[in-house]
Amino acid sequence: MGSQSQSPLHVVDFTNENMKPGTDAWLSACHVARTALEDHGCFIARYDRVSKELCDSVVSALEQLFALPLETKVQKTSDKLFRGYLGQLSWLPLYESLGVDNPLSMDGCQKFAHIMWPQGNQSFCESVNEYAKLLGELDHIAKRMVFESYGLEMKRCDSFIESSNYLLRCMQYRTAKKDENDLGLWSHTDLTTISIVHQLNNLNGLEIKMAEGEWSEVDASPNLFVVMAGDAFQVWSNGRIRSCEHRVIMNEKKTRYSMGLFSFIDKKVHIPEELVNEQHPLRYKPIFDHDDFIRFYDKMKIKDHNSRIDAYCGI
Prior knowledge:
With 315 residues, the chain is of the alpha+beta class. It has helices at 24-39, 52-66, 70-73, 106-116, 122-149, 154-162, 231-236, 290-300, 305-313, and strands spanning 11-13, 42-46, 86-89, 92-101, 164-173, 183-188, 194-199, 206-209, 215-217, 224-229, 246-249, 256-265, 269-270, 287-288.
């Protein structure tokens, strides 16, 4: 359950048939997941619900998407940060991405597809929606594991999950030209509660900054998903969980595709009283407004995640 890969990152094996809520295997996995989130801000999920066939169809969908003309892709706009088209950046030339709002619903996928393909693209919608729903299930499981490991009632977790909204970020990294460096995506933490990142076409590149400061490369595999804590989860946990710092380095000589399912909270978040004690005194204001925090980040542009969290809601 809690074994490590060649990197120091903990692996939680969801393919274990004995891992059902209430079993010893489940309780052990909950402890491993929580400890990994506290130490490094993430864990690796071995999760076989997403088949190779589905992965292949999603890669094909992304190839279609990013092959569209730039004037089509830039039509995906949003008044919310990071939800529109992002690309063609002089300081980040290898990276291009698009956000699908509400991807767990077919309606959300169809709304996105109609922007890209006015006549619609049903195969794109079906692949992306099926994929997003399976990642959504993993998001829910990860949150339940954390709540259970902290001894919190499941009805509070259910409320937390029900208040979530999701963004699916489709990402393409092209190969570097001779005069370009290999930085695919700058070092950062996410503003989310949880982010699930999947390296789709078996090309490495994602790196996690460990607690000790070194970078650890994450192996790409169809059944390996990186479950990362974002800034909002760090606040919710009263700083026990660490927001995961990560980056992408493009050493491969082939276009790389990945997906990220990002979760956000629609309502104001209360830090659980159970997570505040003498050993862990209250670090943040007890009520956290996720949307307002994102607007604060957009205005202030504070790069260091601890600094921006403290500036927004630190005590």
